[in-house]
Structures are given as C-alpha cells and as structure tokens.
Amino acid sequence: MFEFVQKHRGFVGVAFGLVILGLMMTGGSATLMGDGGAGTLAKVDGVEVTERDLQTLAGGQQVPEAEKPKMVEQLVQRQLMMNQAKELNVLAADAQLREQIGKIDAFKGEDGKFSIERYKSMLASRNMTVAQFEQLLGEDMRMQTLVDSLGSSGFSSRLAAERLVTAVTQPREVTALVFGADKFMPQAVVSDAEVKQYYDSHQADYRLPERVKLSYVVFSRDALLPTTVVTPQQLQEHFEKNKAELAQEERQVRHILIKADAAASKEAKAAAKQKAEKLLAELKQNPARFADLAKQNSEDPGSAVQGGDLGYNRKGVMVKAFDDAAFKLAKGELSGVVETEYGYHILQLQDVRSKSFDELKPGIEQSLRAELAQKRFDAETEKFTDMAYQQANSLQPLVDAYKLPLVQSDWVSREASADPMLNDKVREAVFGDDVLNKKHNSEAIEVSKGTLLVARVAAHEKARVPPLTEVAGKISDLLKREKAVKLAQAEGKKTLAALQAGTPVALEWTPSRPISRLRSEGLDKPAINAIFSAKLPGYAGVENKDSYIVFKVSAATAAPMDPAMRQNLVGSLEQVTGRQTVEAYIAELRRKQKVEIAQPK
β-strands 47-50, 538-543: how paired? Predict the structure, then answer.
C-alpha cells in the first residue's frame, strides 16, 4: 500500500492531508466526516470531527498527544473547505471522477488499461466499497476545485512574481564609508568616578563563584600498559590456542563481473549471462589474459582497474555463492559462471596463504598486553579504592604505590571546569563536606570505563565579588569602547546628514561593488534594507554593533540572468503566493463558520 500512496498521491490525495489514502491504509469503511459516535474532537458549523477521523488521517497509527492539535487543525481546515464547497454547490462531475480513477496505475491490469475487477478487489481488500471510495475522492476533488479557483488570477500572480524576481536580483552599485569604534578610542575618556559608578551598579556581573584548585591522580588500565610484560611463552601459547582463527586461510582472487541485479529483466539477465559465458570460453583458451579481460569487461569499478584483483580475503567476507566458489578452486584454476545478487562472475584463484606466527606476533602481543593490563586493573581496583579511603589525608601513598603522576588543576567551580577529567561526578564529590571542609581524599570516582580518579582540595575560595582594583581595568576598557561606539555612530550620522543635504565630504570611500538582495556580498539584513530603501541616487546609513556605515547607492543595469534560474525563482515565488492565498482563504472561512475545538480531558 505504501507504493500506492507514493505513486498516486497526486490523484487521490488532493486538497488536505491525504485523508483518503489514510482511510485506505487503515482498511476502514466509514465516511470521513459526520460519524459522531467515535469521540468528538471538534465541530465545524455543526459537523463533527471525530477520533475516527483522526485515526484515518494518521493511517491507523497511534497519534502522539503532542501531534494531536496539529492534526485536528488539518481536519478542521478540511471541513471548512467541505462546508464551503457545499454552500457554493461545487460538484465533481461523474466524468471527471471516472477520469481521475482511470489514471491510477494501481487499478490497471497487465495491459495498462483500467480494470474494474482490479478496482473492486483492491478496495474490497481494504474493507471499502466502490461507493465509499468514490464519495471520498469526489469530496477531495470538490475541495481541489475550490483551491484551483483561488488561482484564477494566475496572470497577475505571475506578473507580481516576475516583478519581485527583478527586485530581488537587480543590483545597485554601492560604496561605503565605515566609521569604526577603533578610530575613536583615543577620544573616549573615562573617569575614575564613571568606573566606580559602573562597578557599584554591576557587581553581580563580576561575582566569582565558589571555586577550588585540586590535586588528583588517575588510575587506569591504559596507565598499566607500559609496565605489563608479555612473555615469549605466553605469545606462543596464545598463538597455538587460537591458531585456527588467527592464522585462517586467505585467498587472493581475481574476478570479472557482468552486472545484472535482482531488478533486472529476464532479457537483461540472459544477455549478461551470455556475455559472461563467452568471456569464460575465451579465458579457458588463454587463462593468462584474465587481467586484461577484466580491465576491458568487468563492471566492478573498484577491481576492474586492478585487473579484477580483490586482494586477500578470509572465508565469509564475500557473498556466499562467490565465497563458496572461491574456496573450492585450486591455484590458477578458473571457476564457472557464478551468479550472485550483483550479476555474473568469473573467478580465478591467484594465491593461498596463512599468516605465520612472526607476522601475527605484534598484534598478539598488543592484544595480550591489553588483556593482562585489564586483569591487573580489575585486581588492583579494590586495593586502590581502599588505599584512597584508608589514607585519606594524602594522595602520596597512591602516587608511590602505583607510580602515578600528581596532577594540579586550575580553578574549578561547581558548574564548570576546563579539564575534561573533572566532570560532573568529580565536581560534585570535591564540593562535598568530606572533601571540601574535612580535607579528605575523594572516593575513587569512575570518570570513564576503566579509569578511576581520586582528588583532594589544594586551594579553596568562597564566592566573592572582587574589589574594584581587580576589575577597574576591564571596566575602563568596556566604558571606553561604549563611548567610542557612540562617537563613531554620531560622526556617521552627522556625515550622512551632510551628504543628504548636498555637502561633499573629504573621506575615503570603499571601492564600488554591485549589491542585490540575492547577492548581499556579506552585508547583513539591516544594511541591505537600508541600501534598498534609499532613493536613487542617494545615501543610506546603518548602525552596527561597534560602527556606523554610510552607503552611497546608485542604480545599476541588471546583468542578464540565466533563463532557467529566473524561471525557477518565479515558480518558487508563485508557489509561496499560492500557499499564502489558500491560508488567507481558510482564515476567512474560519471567521464565517463556527469552529468549536473540544478541550483535552
């Protein structure tokens, strides 16, 4: 049924919400509206919208509570349109109805023509009668007629879209004067009294939270790796015990693929197989040509350039039919034509190998060292945890016993730390009474799998507001910047007023460049709006965070636009206009008709 929905939503799911398709998918047999026995969700001019309608729209799926209001609104909008269609006596002619049904591929027989038997059987399989389906389709067609009528002024809509595209794409030549705060910093003078006044009224902004500096040690499996020794005997024993897996046979195979996947027609598969058999016959005459023929004919792009070489692979890596064939061949032997889900293959075995102990030794050693280090870590975890607790007045016993580095942190608050090791769990522990006030070690905290951390407080500061002397410099810089911005903006506005009054200014303008709404060249929205609000030729200005920019704006001839791009833009704008028209129409219907939404229980 999903395929039916995807292919035919244009014919069946007209107007709103694919409601007919939802009904077909659930196998329901009730009409969409007017069944008041299934829990009323809303009323539209007295016509009930029910829980059954909601289930129909949802395709029989459970509707999350958060989604219900939106879906009820869709049903209300549909009923508004249905009521209006009835009032205007908008009908779907029988001929139009038959035409739409006849276009639906799902109702066509093998000859591509509409089949009344297939039509009835498909509807019956979903517990729906022909009359019910045609009633619902007719309702949606009536609503679509209403929607289409809203676009009757299509010429004017397209003309408006054309004009809007021209407005969006037509550039203006723009040059600018930038009044930046940096140039006015020397003129920005801040007194001690201003700094003090700002400090007094903004102390909360400078309040420092309670914070600590920590000493900590980290004990982990990885820390034990360098001191974990793997003996030659352990390496050999591990190899012998796991030889079947570690030294598994690997085969180097070349192949030629002629593609014919599961979706290919019988004719295409037959042609692909015939081509493969022809290549096999040629190879049997001269197997040495395998690489050349693979480069010329194989449709596996990854291996064709390598003469079909797939490298060494263990059994089970390839698809089963390919794998079975590859592991039956003798060195140099050709397979027959092997069919897989990808098509038809010809195989040639190049080599067989098994890795030796010496080749595998580095990997075995690494694996064994990690395994032994994990065992050491597991065995030592309880001892490490007990030592942290029993000798809670110092981290030095842990440092000495486990040869761990003692790490010193920067300031850490309850809320944050720049050190990723000092996560939420650690910060919660170190601000607890036992660690913060009693000066004990923390417990051994698992900061990640296989990693334990023990910390203690090295320094502690309560929350405080720093004295003015500590922050006076920052405040002075802040106030100077604010004054410099005001000076820059005042000078910019003064210059703009002079230019608009016809007074020339002796300042250096930036190079001229074309600016359009479509190509803003990095300018933000306020700047673009200012440029396109200016009379031509003319001047405009805009405040930025720390500057003021004056623009000199002149008209420019629009460069020819790619016709396809222009057509796409016009079409997109027409669609937006169409949506807005429908939304406005529904809003008007809502004002005319009485809509009651049931309150959730």
Answer: unpaired
Report the range of poorest mean pLDDT among 23-32, 349-358, 442-451: 23-32
Residue 23 scores a pLDDT above 50: no
- Core vs surface per residue 273-307: b (16+ CB within 10 A) or e: bebbeebbeebeeeeeebbebbeebbebeebbeeb
Dist CA 329 CA 348 (whole Å): 8
162: Cβ contacts below 8 Å, ≥ 6 apart = 570
- Amino acid at position 304, single letter: A
CA distance 303 to 576: 49
Residue of 78, 36, 79, 32 whose CA lies nearest to 56: 32
Cβ neighbours of residue 582 under 8 Å, at least 6 residues apart? 147, 150
Cis peptide bond upstream of 537, omega within 30 = yes
- Region 17-41 average pLDDT: 45
SS3 content of the chain, % helix, strand, coil (to 5): 55, 20, 30
Tally: H helices and E strands in the chain: 23, 16
One-letter amino acid at 237 equals: E
CA distance 494 to 503: 11
99 touches 11 (CB < 8 A): no
pLDDT tens-digit series, residues 204-229: 999 999 999 999 999 988 878 888 88
- CA nearest to 210, candidates 463, 457, 27, 408: 463
CB atoms within 10 A of CB 336: 12
